[in-house]
Design a protein that fits this description.
By secondary structure, the protein is an alpha/beta fold. It contains 15 helices and eleven strands.
């Protein structure tokens, strides 16, 4: 089990769309955590190139054997145009839009490439691979990790053969990992990281990596105490120099802006910093990836203009705690704080109660 080989139980969240880079993944892995490459919106060839680059960086750091992971988006089904055409017509009156299209994110080709050239861990978001697909990865020595947001999704992942469950709580930045994004479920409160973690440890014997709202060593220690095998952090690494985060995004992280869930930019619920575009489109339909591709020119133009009110600024609820340390230094700082939080003094406090 890869989790048992890590020098520190810290996992880098895969952050598609720019922030994820080979430099960031390699730095986290070389420092003793588990770095991840996000491959969402990349082709199989681009994915292969990033894997090669990550290995080269690990070799340069003298960490050839350090494990790292690759994350894939599980494709859904096309959305009928009538469900989102009116929304895009409204948005298009004020912003440039592209084609609303569906694709599978090069799913088959990426799986084939990862079977031909295996990596230690392959994780999945937006759904669960089939048992046969998990079996292909197991056959070449890769672990399969599945991101889940409920006990029901966890059961599906375990049935498919998942080795590890990544429990994504409501506090997490970026897209919700729910297998199916249903508007009719919006009225239900999504589970917090701690609540989901407790439910999972009582329902399955699979190792659980806790994700969502974890930004400090104390926060990471808290989920370990609650039963997690490791803590996954994403927003905490957004401002590291190795991340590909846009400057507009970096600048926004330090501002005490509330976050909220929205489908406005992508057609799938995601947590980002509240801005005018999100507030103006509270009823954006569920249509992913069609709306994501349609709003591509809108987001590109906003970044070029420095317009933080018309671009997705994905961030978790603890974004104001994000610093700008190099990734390796951040891993070491988090690890030191985790050890401190789990000190014997804490145990004595519990015994004295």
């Amino acid at each position: 089990m890869i989790l048992d080989e890590l020098r520190t139980p810290i996992v880098l969240a895969p952050m598609a769309g720019g922030p994820s880079t080979p430099e960031l993944a390699a730095a986290v892995s070389a420092a003793g955590g588990l770095g991840f490459l996000a491959t969402g919106y990349l082709s199989a060839d681009e994915t292969a190139d990033r894997i090669v680059r990550t290995r080269a960086l690990l070799s340069e750091a003298g960490a050839d054997t350090a494990p790292f992971g690759v994350n894939l988006f599980v494709p859904g089904a096309p959305t009928p145009a009538e469900r989102f055409s009116r929304y895009l017509e409204q948005v298009g009156r004020s912003f440039p839009l592209g084609d609303a299209r569906f694709d599978t994110d090069d799913w088959d080709a990426k799986l084939d490439a990862l079977v031909a050239d295996p990596v230690p861990v392959v994780s999945f978001t937006f759904g669960c691979p089939s048992a046969a697909e998990v079996g292909r990865l197991h056959a070449v020595g890769s672990e399969a990790w599945v991101t889940i947001t409920s006990v029901g999704e966890a059961r599906i992942a375990v049935e498919a053969g998942a080795d590890v469950l990544i429990a994504q709580g409501a506090e997490a930045g970026g897209h919700r990992a729910t297998f199916v994004d249903r508007p009719e479920d919006d009225g239900a409160d999504p589970l917090s990281t701690l609540a989901l973690l407790q439910l999972l440890t009582g329902a399955t014997d699979r190792p659980v990596v806790a994700a969502g709202g974890i930004a400090t060593g104390a926060g990471a220690a808290a989920v370990l105490v609650a039963g997690a095998a490791a803590a996954q952090l994403g927003t905490a690494f957004l401002n590291c120099p190795e991340a590909g985060t846009a400057q507009l995004h970096r600048d926004a992280l330090a501002i005490d802006t509330p976050t909220m869930l929205t489908r406005a930019f992508s057609g799938r619920r995601a947590r980002g910093l509240r801005n005018r575009f999100i507030l103006d489109h509270p009823d954006a339909p569920a249509a992913y990836p069609e709306i994501h591709y349609a709003t591509g020119p809108l987001r590109k133009q906003a970044r070029a203009d420095g317009n933080a009110d018309a671009v997705n600024l994905w961030a978790g609820q603890t974004h104001t705690l994000t610093g700008d340390l190099p990734a390796a230094d951040l891993v070491r700082a988090l690890s030191a704080k985790m050890k401190s939080a789990l000190s014997p003094a804490l145990s004595r406090r519990i015994q004295d109660c």
